[in-house]
Every structure is written in structure tokens, then in C-alpha cells.
């Protein structure tokens, strides 16, 4: 069975990391279908549909997903909300974070790490991501 993967990354929160999202999504393709490719699309004009449509569509994609992979370095209300909804839906979650000088990841994300269903992993460079994903998905498919 192919996995439905919900990738979550900042949009209105700031697009500084869009190239990193793209690289992560390219890696995620090895594990299943990405429901939210548009998050890594530089040209995405995400203003074209109304906000209720965005919200309802994303919640329904979260419901359809088998797991959530979120890049949480660039703070985003939408990403935090999606993670909270995914926890309530009991979906496995992987949060990827690049530690930043003078900035700390929210305690509500770091503090949710439980080593099984909610994983927070720090990385320095995107070349570390394939190994992180490999471990996450091998645990996911063996559990
Ligand atoms: O147009 C959109 N489409 C959409 O799917 N989202 C979702 C996907 C992203 O993982 C997340 C980003 O939230 P924010 O825009 O608050 O940074 O919300 C967010 C927006 C804009 O808020």
C-alpha cells in the first residue's frame, strides 16, 4: 500500500525555506504520495482560493494522510495548527528543525516529542534528511 504523506511547511508565515521544502519533498517521493506538493512550489499563488476552502481542503487531506512530515524551522501558525490537528487525529508526525542562532523551537512542538508517534529531529543541512526519513518510515511501516 502506498502511503499518503502530508508535507507541512510555512506559506504565509514566510517562504524563506521553500527550496528546502522542495528537496525534502523530492526525498519523500521514495515513500509515498505527497498530498501537498504546492507547499514547495515557488510560484504557488496561494491567495487564489478563499481561506475556508484552504482550511477545509487541508483538514480533509490530513484525514486522508497516513503521516505528517513538517519542516518547522520557519515559524508558521498554519503549520502549528496542522500539527495540532494531526495529533488529535492520532497521525504519526515527524518535525524537522534546523537550530537557529538566538531562536528556539516552540516548546509546544519540542515538548510534544515522545519518540514514537511524535518525533522532533534537529538537522543542520538538508543532506541529513534522507537518513532521518529512512529511519522514520522504517519505524512507521514496522509498527
Ligand atoms: O494557501 C494556503 N494553502 C495551504 O494549504 N496552507 C497550509 C499548508 C501549509 O502546510 C500551511 C502553511 O500555513 P501558513 O500559511 O500559516 O504559513 O498551511 C496555507 C495557505 C496559506 O495560509
Automatic annotation (TrEMBL):
**Which reaction(s) are listed as its catalytic activity?**
a pyrimidine 2'-deoxyribonucleoside 5'-phosphate + H2O = a pyrimidine nucleobase + 2-deoxy-D-ribose 5-phosphate; 5-hydroxymethyl-dUMP + H2O = 5-hydroxymethyluracil + 2-deoxy-D-ribose 5-phosphate; a purine 2'-deoxyribonucleoside 5'-phosphate + H2O = a purine nucleobase + 2-deoxy-D-ribose 5-phosphate
Q: What EC designation does it have?
A: 3.2.2.-
Q: Does this UniProt record's set of keywords contain Hydrolase?
A: yes
Q: What is the predominant subcellular site recorded for this chain?
A: cytoplasm
Q: Which GO molecular function terms does the record list?
A: 5-hydroxymethyl-dUMP N-hydrolase activity; identical protein binding
Sorted alphabetically, which InterPro entries does this protein's record hold?
2'-dNMP_N-hydrolase, DNPH1, Nucleoside_deoxyribTrfase
Keywords linked to the UniProt accession: Cytoplasm, Glycosidase, Hydrolase, Nucleotide metabolism, Nucleus
Which Gene Ontology CC terms are recorded? cytoplasm; nucleus
Q: Does the keyword Nucleus apply?
A: yes
What is the annotated localization of this protein?
Answer: Cytoplasm; Nucleus
Which residues are recorded as binding substrate? 6-12, 21, 82, 106-108
Q: Which GO terms describe its biological process?
A: deoxyribonucleoside monophosphate catabolic process; nucleoside metabolic process; purine nucleotide metabolic process
Q: Which PANTHER family does the entry link to?
A: 2'-DEOXYNUCLEOSIDE 5'-PHOSPHATE N-HYDROLASE 1
HAMAP family hit by this protein: Nuc_phosphate_hydrolase
Q: Fill in the subunit field for this protein.
A: Monomer and homodimer.
- What function is annotated for this protein? Catalyzes the cleavage of the N-glycosidic bond of deoxyribonucleoside 5'-monophosphates to yield deoxyribose 5-phosphate and a purine or pyrimidine base.
Membership in a protein family = Belongs to the 2'-deoxynucleoside 5'-phosphate N-hydrolase 1 family.
Identification of the protein by name: Putative 2'-deoxynucleoside 5'-phosphate N-hydrolase 1
Q: Which organism is it from?
A: Lymnaea stagnalis
